[in-house]
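Example record

One chain of 72 residues, shown exactly as stored in the release files.
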Amino acid sequence: MSNKITYHATKVAVDALTITLAAELADKGITVNTINPGLTDTGWIKNNLREKLIKRFPMGRLGQSEDTAKIC
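Predicted structure tokens for this chain:
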């Protein structure tokens, strides 16, 4: 995903924040977790890109918002 430096920077920041908070709060018995659902088709993917991406996913489909909602 070229030209997405802000997007990637925020993903890395959330990962680092999760790891740091987990370490900082562990002694208080607080656990910290992050859900990273991966690529989710929320309407932004054009059909030609969707077809290319689907081939890379073992289930033959992209993630949907409902998939992540089930986790919470």
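Notes: The two ends are 27 Å apart (CA to CA).
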